[in-house]
Every structure is written in C-alpha cells, then in structure tokens.
Amino acid sequence: MVRPFIKIGLAFIFTGSAFGCNSSAEKREINSVQLPKSGVVHDRMVAITNKDLSYALYLPSGLNGDGMLYPVILALDPGGSGLTPVKKYKELAEKYGYILMGSNDSHNGQPTTEIGPVITGMLGEIRSVYPCDSNRIYLAGFSGGSRVAGMAATYYEGVKGVIGCGAGFPTEDKTHLAAFDYFGIAGTADFNMNEMIQLDRILEQVGMRHFITTFPGPHAWPPAGVMEDGFQWCTLNAMKDGTLKRDDVVIGRIMAGFDIRIAKERYDNQLIPAAEICKEAILFGEGLISTDKFKKELQSISDLPEYKNQVAYRQKILKKEAIEQQSLMEGLFSKDEAWWKARIDKMNSKPMQNCNPEDTLMNARLKAFLSLVCYSNADAAIKQRNREVAKTVITVYEMADPQNPEPNYMRAVILLQRYDSTAAVKQLGIAISKGFSDKIRMMQQPEFQGLKNSPDYFDLLQKMK
User: From start to end of 379-447, where are the E strands?
Assistant: First the structure.
C-alpha cells in the first residue's frame, strides 16, 4: 500500500497509482523472464516493468531460481551512478545473501515530479521481476540519496528499513516514522555529522528502532567495512521480527566483532567511538542474546573522567562549527580573496603537537561544507548566466578544494558562454587531469555543443575512460 503524498518543496511526489499496475498477463510475462547471471555485477539493466528506468545489479551467487526469496537493498547515489554502490558493496551482498540494486535515475537536482515515479518504479521492478522477500525490502542512500531514501520509507509501507549515509531526512511528519528501521552512518569529517547527531535525538524521541554511527572519514559512501554494520542491522532485525530464521552462528560472529572493535578503540583512547560501539552492540543484540557485558563495558567507559572530557570537547566543537558554517555562508559574497585565502589557510593548518584531534576534524568538515556551498551557488549562478558571481564563487571553490575538477569544468562552461573555446578546452583539460570522468555529462552539456568539430575537444574525450 502507498500512502498518497504530495508535498512541494521536499522534492517528493508519491501517488498510489504508481504501484501494483501490472495486469495478470503482464506479471506472467515478467515472471517468465530469465534472471541475469548471479555472482557478477551487471553495470546497466533496463527495467522490464518501465523501459525509462535503469539500474546496476548484483545477485548473490546462490540465487538460482529455486523458489527461495531474498532480501533486497535498493541504493540511491546522489550523482545517479547506480554502479558506484553496487560495485562497492557487492561482497557484502554476497556474504549476507542480498539482492543489491543501484538506481541510475535518482539523483540530486531532480524536479519534484520525477523522484517519486523513479522510486515507485524501482520498487515495482523489485517486486515483479526478482525473487524478493517482500518483508525485507530496504533502501540505502548517500547524501541527497539518503534524504530520498528516508522520505520514501516514510511514505511507502513496503520499505522495511533504510541505511542512510552522510545525510538525514525531513522528520516534520512523525506519524509514520516508527514503521521502518533506520541505520545512519556519518564520517567524522563529514559536514553533515552534526545533522546526523541531531537526527539521532529526534528518532529517539519518537521511539523509532534506529542507530546512528560514525567512522573516520569524509562525506562519501562509507567503506565496505562500515557499511557492513548496516547489512548486519537489517539481518539481525529480521531475526528479531521472525522474517528470517534465527542463526546463532551469524549472531555469534557479529557480536564477537563488537568485542574486538571496542578493545581496539579503548586501547587507542578513543573513548567516544568505544562507547558508540557498546551502544551499537547492545541495540544489535537485544532480543537475541544477553547484552549485559556490553552494558557493563559502556558504564565503565562512561565513568571515566577522560571520556567525559572528550564528550564535552566534542559538544563545544560542534557548537563552534555551526557558528563557523554561518560565517562561511555569509562571507561568500562579502569577503575578498585575501580574506578567503587567510580563512582557508587556517582550515588547512595542521594541528600542533598534543592538540585535540576534534579541531582537525572540525576544519575538515568546514572545508567540505564550504566546497558544497560553493558548488551550489556557482551552479545556480551559471544557470542564471550571472557570470561575475559565478567567477567569484568558483575562485573560492578552487581555493577550498584544489583537487576537485568541478571548478575547472564550471570555468569551461562560463568561457563558452562568452564564446572563448580555446580557454574553455584548456580548463576542460585541467578538469580531466584532476580526475573528471563523466563523459556523458560533458557530451550533453549545452554549452559544449559548439565544440563537436574541435580536434582538441575530441582528443579530450578520447582521453576519458
């Protein structure tokens, strides 16, 4: 069942008509289609139920059409690259027996009329084509994809849980939040870490089954070793709910992993992560095993003066970070290049010996935040053909994130708006040397259409993978 939902401004439109639309004849035809080969990554599958949609796919090697039903994770990448999460997490899908799909059609910046049909269409494909366990359909997303995943689970009853990475989701309507499980992941150098911490408190208040963890890393899809916690969360919750047979070997292996991780963090005097892992172990194990030893370990850590000091300093840093973010946004159009150079140099400065590592992490989050703010504002200015504003913002963008190819790509767009093809091709060359590899985007960029007959432009396309 789909809850009808139309809300402009949250970039989402759901309607009941998008589901269950296949006739009996269509279902018989779909179910007779031979499934793709299991145990390998399929880069691009065109949806059988909707030819306008495509996705990357991994089927666990045990899937052989013998009537068994499998859990499914549909991954949403902010750049519309379904292949990225599928390649990154295929070993996890194999290990835990999940069908893993990555949408190529859900991405940041979509009109409100497109996102809902993409999600509903993919969920229809999952139910109609693949041997899915309808009680174990999950969404995973990173950044903007995480926000979409949370919204979809809120308004579509068929989604059992969400693994949200690097961003939360709107929670103004709390009516349906307890209907699905949520596992959140944020890097300690992710500019959205503070947001995820706040989300944890909100979900706690509404009584939602959830956990939010952090890992040492930036705003990105988490490493497979971190994402594995999300797979384990879904698996253990299914055992608790009776939708998956209890497996004591799997339970024991997962819980033993927590023991090792806690010991390592305590040895390194990383007491906040050690406490987080204890809480995670308690939540994972409750209802399956006794978690008394993890509760005792958590109490032992919480009583340490050093732990209290680390918590207090992190809270202080997070408050300071919120103020700094506001200052960066206000300064984007009011400060000169010299001010920005000094401010970014301060964020780049390496910590002095014995300095608290939380300061370094805050600076990393602020740099990533500034990079995103610059991208958003420069992109908007380019679309409005406000070239002077775009040039100013791009200058700050490149200072803040010098290895990012996007500022050079954007400069090329501006230069071609001014019909300076020679300088534009040069900027594209720099972007490619920095790792820009989206050939399709480059070929579809309206401003670049006049370069089709340029030998230098053709050479650049040939260099790209």
Answer: none
Type of residue numbered 387: R
pLDDT tens by residue, 3-39: 333 333 343 444 443 333 343 334 434 455 688 999 9
The tokens describing 37, both together, are 């080969």
We find that the CATH architecture of domain 340-463 is: Alpha Horseshoe (1.25)
Coil/strand/helix, residue 73: strand
Q: How far apart, in whole angstroms, are the C-alpha atoms of residue 263 and residue 301? A: 11
With contact defined as beta carbons under 8 Å apart, do 233 and 205 qualify? no
Amino acid identity, position 404: N
Q: Which two tokens stand for residue 131?
A: 């041997």
pTM for the whole structure: 0.84
31, 55, 287, 462 from 61: Cα distances, Å:
20, 19, 31, 36
DSSP of 261-287, one letter per residue? HHHHHHHTT-HHHHHHHHHHHHHHHTT
Q: What is the pLDDT of residue 25?
A: 39
Q: In sequence order, which residues have a C-beta less than 8 Å from that of residue 465 and are 6 or more positions away?
A: 437, 439
Distance separating alpha carbons of residues 418 and 82, to the nearest angstrom: 35
- What 3-state DSSP class applies to 163? strand
**Domain limits, CATH 1.25.40, in the chain:** 340-463
Mean pLDDT of the chain, nearest integer = 89
Instruction: Give span(s): CATH 3.40.50.1820, the chain.
Output: 5-245
With the CA atoms of 207, 208, 211 and 217 taken in that order, what torsion angle do they form, in degrees rounded to the nearest 10?
-120
> Rounded distance, CA 293 to CA 281, Å?
10
CATH superfamily entry for domain 5-245:
Alpha/Beta hydrolase fold, catalytic domain (3.40.50.1820)
- Helix pair 224-241, 83-96: axis angle to 10 deg: 50
Closest by Cα among 164, 66, 54, 51 to 101: 54
Longest dimension (CA), the chain: 71
Short-list 97, 95, 94, 77, CA closest to 85: 77
Tokens at 457, concatenated: 């432009």
- Residue whose pair of structure tokens reads 């095993």 in the numeric block: 289
Return the minimum-mean-pLDDT range out of 347-356, 379-388, 438-447. 347-356
